[in-house]
Amino acid sequence: MVATSHGAPSGGRPAEILRRLVRPVVRRLDGRVRRLARQELEGTASSADLAHARAALEAEAEKLQGELADLRDQARSLSAREQALAAGLEEERARAEGLRATLSAHAATTAALGVVAEERLARLALAGHPLPPGLVDVYLAALRPLPEPTARLAVARERAVALAAEADHRAALDVLAEVADEPGFLDYATVFQVAELLRATSRYDAARDVARLAGTGPRARTRAALVRAQTSWITHDHVAGAAAARGALEIDPDHELARTWLRRHVEPVTPPPGDAPTGGIGHAALYLPEGGNFGDVALPHAVRQAVEAATGARPDWVPFHVHQVFDDERVEIANAQRALVVGGGGLFLPDTAPNGNSGWQWNVPRASLDRLDVPLHVFAVGYNLFRGQEFRTDLFRENVVALAEAATQLGLRNHGSIERIRELLPADLHDRVAYVPCPTTVLRHVHPEPPEGSAGSGRVYVNAAFDRGERRFAGGYPRFLEVMAGYVTALRERGAEVALTAHLDADERLAADLATAHGIDVPVVAMNGMTPDEGYRLYADASLVVGMRGHATMIPFGLGTPVLSLVSHPKMRYFLEDLGRPEWGFEVNAERLGDELLERSVDVLSREPEYRQDVSSLQADLWEHVRAAARRVIPPEHGTAPTDG
Question: Where is the Polysaccharide pyruvyl transferase domain (predicted)?
Answer without folding.
Answer: 293-568
